[in-house]
Specification:
Helix content: 40-55%
Shape: globular
CATH architecture of the largest domain: Orthogonal Bundle
Mean pLDDT: 92
Bound molecules: zinc ion
Strand order of the largest sheet: 4-9-5-6-7-8
Oligomer: single chain
Strand content: 15-25%
Number of domains: 2
Amino acid sequence: MHLQELTAQDRETLKAISVFGEDGTTVRPGRLVAGLDVSPATVTARLKRLHDLGLADHVPYAGVTLTEQGIKVTVTIIRRHRIVERFLVDMLGYGWEEAEELAPHFEHALPRDVVQRLYETLGKPETCPHGFPIPSPDSDSLPMLRSLVELDPGDVAEIAVPSNTDPEVVEYLAELGVHPGVRIKVKDKLPFDGPVTITVNGVDQTVGNKLARMLSVMTPDRSF
Ligand SMILES: [Zn+2]
């Protein structure tokens, strides 16, 4: 199967399976309904198409899971999305919260060679403007990040902020000095879903558990 056979909708659905899925490859259809903001019938039809293309399977009780081929294709789609986001922010000056929405207007139409040139012109960035890793084109697994709450005191990480984060939350994070790509160190973590204290730019900040769960982290031992 060639990537060109996939419609923009197919690609957005694959991207959503990866973004909204718990482990990046498996998702419950209900999450896609909310995440893609389409009807359950539309999700069913899109998933059937991906199944017919050999990219996704429905696993009873688990949800929809990407096949090996589906993962490979999704890696390419995500790589392209994150490079285009970088282009919008680094070269055109858009805010990182605007990039996510603008990118799908043209990312799927770009020839592969143009994507590669953008990547090189941008200086081969490691992450998208939200702080998520740009996977290498031949990777056969999706880079998954852990949540801030999974780290232990002493751990150092770079923060990634999901692009669907509420603007008010983004504003609050900015007050704490937390933005995509910022390096933090976990100072303390209280048990039983308590808050996490992090050191950011030399200042200690307390992050509530709910907020800490929303933040992804890229640790130096990352494997992608
Ligand atoms: Zn991004």
